[in-house]
Automatic annotation (TrEMBL):
Protein known as: Cyanate hydratase
EC number of the protein: 4.2.1.104
Gene, per the UniProt record: cynS
Lyase among keywords: yes
UniProt KW keywords: Lyase
Top-level taxon of the source organism: Bacteria
Domain Cyanate lyase C-terminal positions: 79-150
Known function: Catalyzes the reaction of cyanate with bicarbonate to produce ammonia and carbon dioxide.
One Pfam family here: Cyanate_lyase
Enzyme class: lyase
Residues annotated as catalytic: R92, E95, S118
Length: 150
């Protein structure tokens, strides 16, 4: 009889704890597995399947067992977490899209035509930019345009 594979949420909690206790940053881990920063964090929090070689490196780096490795390589179920939506940081992204989403939609349609920005063929970048009035959070969404075809 086999034990069930560890849920991705449990693996994520173990990864977070091991990362903090090891003193490694998310950037350190992303660099070690040669992957984009935001993708790395998303993957290690359970939202992406992690290639076996990268999952092995993470588990070795953080001294985590085969249970975490098994979980990391599995295909995730990507569902919205209602509790996370109320977190102030995540809520601000919802707020920004509520305010600017319709304008961005209009601009996408004006520039590209009838279609959408892919969230599958997609890259996201994060950085910090110094500003005299307080440092700025810079988030760049880079998605392929997908035209509607009738």
């Amino acid at each position: 009889m086999h034990a069930p594979i560890m849920p991705k949420s449990d693996a994520a909690e173990l990864i977070i704890a091991a990362r903090i206790r090891s003193g490694l940053s998310w950037s350190d881990i992303a660099e070690r597995i040669d992957a984009p920063l935001v993708w790395t964090v998303s993957a290690l929090l359970g939202q992406q399947p992690v290639p076996a070689d990268k999952a092995t490196t993470v588990c070795e780096l953080l001294n985590l067992g085969d249970g975490v490795l098994e979980s990391l390589v599995r295909q995730p179920s990507r569902v919205a977490d209602a509790a996370a939506a109320s977190d102030p940081t995540i809520y601000r992204f919802h707020e920004a899209l509520a305010v600017y989403g319709p304008a961005l939609k209009e601009l996408i349609h004006e520039e590209f035509g009838d279609g959408i920005m892919s969230a599958i063929n997609f890259k996201v970048e994060f950085s910090r930019r110094a500003d005299p009035e307080g440092d700025r959070v810079v988030v760049t969404f880079d998605g392929k345009f997908l035209d509607y075809r009738w």
